[in-house]
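Weekly puzzle thread! Below is a chain. First person to post its structure in token form gets bragging rights.
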Amino acid sequence: MAWHGIMRRVNHMTGMAFDLSELVQKGKQLVQAVSEKVDEIESSTPDVGLRAYLTQLADQFEEQTFDPMETVWAQEIDKLFDYADDDEEGESESKE
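Winning reply:
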């Protein structure tokens, strides 16, 4: 799924519109295959506790999702404050 996130960013940064549907489908297939393999390992060696360990890792993981609008908002807010700083500097220079 990381590749999907990367390609979403590439699409956004370059203004391209790559079709990512196949990548999403492949990601789902990979998740399913890994889950089946974990089930297989769990059933053959239940004392290892692989599923519990992976669940613990997943609970601690914080995904950094990509929201292009969040970037736009951050840029516009930065511009606002930059303009405000510029205005304040201009006012203080004119008072001197």
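Puzzle host: Confirmed. Bonus trivia for everyone else. Helices lie at 2-14, 21-44, 50-60, 68-95.
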